[in-house]
Structure formats: structure tokens, C-alpha cells
């Protein structure tokens, strides 16, 4: 089955996932690395032809090649236990590190440094930095379970001066471990006014906001009841 992920930076919804087990723990099924909702569209005509022109990354040795999507807890634990003498491992994600999410709140007030709560994928599995194993900073934009191919697009920051680089990866086993997002339980104002520290830059935003509020509160004429 061919599946195209529209406006997606990570895979957001996979069939046969028991979503009730996630809801009972107060988290939602994986979405993209940003908070916007990802829409999955299944197409079988023109989109499939578009992906067929992507350059491919073929297997370098006989056997099944594991491909890992994401660099969160599950993905990093899986990679750490891989025997690269047997398998050629490929991993791609919009992030090249794993963040220790329980420690992110400590970085907001200076108890921990930002760099101390993140570990690069290359340090956890040094074999990814050596051929034939690979790590790519890219987003997943499509999946063909019939052909066993994942379609990727390079990560861009802001406006790119050139067309994004697209490619496809053939896999033997596919591991989707892009994490989960907290649920707001439809409480009004939570999504607009709360911070959800899932990544290092989220903690940096909280720290900047806190310092800004403290500085603005010192302005002459600012009352204690003034909302900053």
C-alpha cells in the first residue's frame, strides 16, 4: 500500500495502532515534530509516479536492512542495541540528537545546561557515522509498504535557495519511533498559552520568556498586577 504524508515532517498516524492505549496515558499518537496536526492522505496514482523519480539508497549487503524513523527514546534504545556487524542500519529524523525530556525543565532556570540534556545520535551509535550505515537529517513524506520504500525530504530552515533534496530508502524492517505529543483534553486556552517541553528549543523558549517577563516587570510604572 502506498501512503503519502501531506505537510508532514514525521509520520503521524499508522493503521493498526491501538490509540486507546495512548489516550489512557494522556498522550496522543505521534504527530510531526511541530505541534500542527498532520494529515495523512492515501493516494495511488500521480503521487506514486512522483516518488518513483527519487534517487534511491540501495542495500549494501544481502539480508534485511532496518530503517529507523525518528530519534526519540524508543528509536535510540533500538539503535543502541543493534549489531552493525550483521545489519546495515539507516536512520533519519529532523533532529540529530535525543533530548532527555524529564530534564528539560531544569534547563529553563539554569540548573542544567542545554547541552547536558541532549545526546547526539552519533555518540549513542558511532557506527552510524561510518559507511555503510547512515544517518540523514530528513523528514518522512511518504511510505510504500508494497515496495518496502520510505520517501524522504531534506530538512530546511526557513526559505531554501534551492529545491529540497528528495530521496527514497529501501527497507527490510521499518521502525517508526517518532515519539508522542501531550493531549490538551480540549481544555480551552491550554494549547495557546502553555509550553510543552519536548525538545531543547522548547526549553530555550521558556527560559527566554521567563527572563523577558522579569526584565519587563522592572520598568517604571509597571504595577504588580500588570500582566506581562
TrEMBL record:
**Which Pfam families does the record cross-reference, listed alphabetically?**
Pyr_redox_2 (PF07992)
Domain FAD/NAD(P)-binding stretches: 67-211
Which Gene Ontology terms of cellular component type are present?
mitochondrial inner membrane; peroxisome
Q: How does it sit in the membrane?
A: Peripheral membrane protein
Claim: Nucleotide-binding is one of the keywords in the record: no
Q: Please, which domain of life does this record's source organism belong to? A: Eukaryota
Q: Does the keyword Oxidoreductase apply?
A: yes
Q: Where in the cell is it found?
A: Mitochondrion inner membrane; Peroxisome
Alphabetized UniProt keyword annotations: FAD, Flavoprotein, Membrane, Mitochondrion, Mitochondrion inner membrane, NAD, Oxidoreductase, Peroxisome
Q: Which reaction does it catalyse?
A: a ubiquinone + NADH + H(+) = a ubiquinol + NAD(+)
Named from the GO MF annotations, one term is: NADH dehydrogenase activity
InterPro entries (UniProt xref):
FAD/NAD-bd_sf, FAD/NAD-binding_dom, NDH-2
Please report which protein family the annotation says this sequence is part of.
Answer: Belongs to the NADH dehydrogenase family.
Official protein name in the record? FAD/NAD(P)-binding domain
Amino acid at each position: 500500500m502506498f501512503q503519502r504524508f501531506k505537510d508532514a515532517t514525521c509520520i503521524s498516524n499508522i493503521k493498526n495502532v491501538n490509540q486507546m492505549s495512548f489516550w489512557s496515558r494522556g498522550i496522543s499518537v505521534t504527530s510531526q515534530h511541530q505541534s500542527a496536526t498532520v494529515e495523512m492522505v492515501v493516494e495511488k496514482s500521480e503521487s506514486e509516479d512522483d516518488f518513483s523519480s527519487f534517487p534511491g539508497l540501495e542495500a549494501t549487503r544481502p539480508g534485511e536492512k532496518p530503517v529507523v524513523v525518528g530519534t526519540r527514546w524508543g528509536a535510540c534504545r533500538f539503535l543502541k542495541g543493534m549489531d552493525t556487524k550483521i545489519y546495515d542500519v539507516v536512520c533519519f529524523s529532523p533532529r540529530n540528537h535525543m533530548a532527555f525530556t524529564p530534564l528539560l525543565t531544569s534547563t529553563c532556570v539554569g540548573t542544567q545546561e542545554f547541552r547536558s540534556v541532549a545526546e547526539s545520535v552519533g555518540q549513542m551509535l558511532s557506527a552510524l557515522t561510518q559507511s555503510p550505515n547512515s544517518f540523514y537529517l530528513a523528514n518522512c513524506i511518504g511510505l510504500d509498504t508494497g515496495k518496502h520504500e520510505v520517501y524522504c525530504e531534506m530538512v530546511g530552515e526557513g526559505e531554501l535557495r534551492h529545491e529540497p533534496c528528495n530521496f527514497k530508502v529501501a527497507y527490510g524492517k521499518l521502525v517508526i519511533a517518532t515519539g508522542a505529543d501531550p493531549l490538551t483534553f480540549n481544555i480551552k486556552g491550554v494549547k495557546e498559552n502553555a509550553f510543552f517541553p519536548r525538545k531543547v528549543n522548547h526549553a530555550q523558549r521558556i527560559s527566554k520568556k521567563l527572563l523577558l517577563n522579569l526584565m519587563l516587570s522592572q520598568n517604571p510604572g509597571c504595577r504588580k498586577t500588570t500582566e506581562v
